[in-house]
């Protein structure tokens, strides 16, 4: 196997049969890497959760690069050319949009809002308009429309999943890639690392905000989330 990419939370290897192996790391970051820690068991939890969510997505008609979970910390996935856009879907206002637009935290977004951010750490992942995306030649007009449509479909499936677990989906970030035939599909991961999720009644966080804001144990939070998910899937 050959290491082809290492990011903040994952290593990606090319295997002999052209599939990719993703290894989830015991690292957690926030603020574009300004906050960084090692936490034993974090990679295992992210892998178990993300694998379970991808499997739930598949059962509900959402295709992705996910093939199967092959160990406690690893997945086998299809090779994709990643589109350098982070697609954010917001059901409620939280995080950066509260500061940008002066909204109230957890203000309902109706309809859900889709935003694009340039996947470029050196620039701080800036917010992009459709015209910016065209100017940078990151995706065509038709592809941007398709990404929005798919993101909203994923939102509906993910909201349903969270509601069955007694949770509210505040917002989430996803990425997409193209296979060898140019088919666009869901990539990267979906986990409490990439979502904001709160308990419907207590409003307790079940996501990485407990680490960002130093309000609780990330490992305990992700373990509690996984227990809820296990009962569902």
From TrEMBL:
EC id: 6.3.2.6
Matching InterPro entries: SAICAR_synt/ADE2_N, SAICAR_synt_PurC, SAICAR_synth, SAICAR_synthetase, SAICAR_synthetase_CS
Keyword terms, alphabetized? ATP-binding, Ligase, Nucleotide-binding, Purine biosynthesis
Q: Which residues form the signal peptide?
A: none
MF GO annotations: phosphoribosylaminoimidazolesuccinocarboxamide synthase activity
Q: Which SUPFAM superfamilies match?
A: SAICAR synthase-like
Its UniProt entry gives the catalysed reaction(s) as:
5-amino-1-(5-phospho-D-ribosyl)imidazole-4-carboxylate + L-aspartate + ATP = (2S)-2-[5-amino-1-(5-phospho-beta-D-ribosyl)imidazole-4-carboxamido]succinate + ADP + phosphate + 2 H(+)
Q: Which parts of the sequence belong to the SAICAR synthetase/ADE2 N-terminal domain?
A: 4-225
Keyword Ligase present in the record's keywords: the answer is: yes
Pfam families linked to this entry: SAICAR_synt (PF01259)
HAMAP family per record: SAICAR_synth (MF_00137)
Entry protein name: Phosphoribosylaminoimidazole-succinocarboxamide synthase
Q: Please give the organism.
A: Salinicoccus siamensis
Gene (UniProt)? purC
């Amino acid at each position: 196997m050959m290491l082809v990419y290492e990011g903040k939370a994952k290593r990606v290897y090319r295997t002999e049969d052209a599939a990719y192996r993703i290894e989830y790391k015991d690292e957690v970051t926030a603020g574009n890497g300004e906050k960084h820690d090692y936490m034993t068991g974090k990679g295992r939890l992210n892998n178990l959760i993300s694998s379970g969510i991808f499997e739930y997505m598949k059962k509900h008609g959402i295709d992705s690069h996910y093939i199967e979970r092959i160990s406690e910390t690893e997945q086998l996935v299809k090779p994709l050319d990643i589109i350098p856009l982070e697609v954010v879907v917001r059901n409620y206002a939280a995080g950066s949009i509260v500061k940008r637009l002066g909204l109230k935290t957890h203000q309902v977004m109706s309809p859900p809002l889709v935003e694009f951010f340039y996947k470029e750490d050196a620039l701080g992942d800036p917010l992009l308009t459709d015209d910016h995306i065209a100017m940078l030649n990151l995706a065509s007009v038709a592809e941007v429309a398709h990404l929005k449509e798919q993101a909203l479909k994923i939102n509906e499936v993910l909201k349903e999943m969270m509601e069955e677990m007694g949770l509210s989906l505040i917002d989430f970030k996803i990425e997409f890639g193209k296979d060898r035939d140019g088919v666009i599909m869901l990539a990267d991961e979906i986990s409490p690392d990439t979502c904001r999720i709160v308990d419907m009644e207590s409003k307790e966080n079940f996501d990485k905000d407990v680490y960002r804001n130093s309000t609780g144990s990330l490992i305990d939070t992700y373990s509690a989330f996984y227990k809820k998910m296990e009962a569902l899937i």
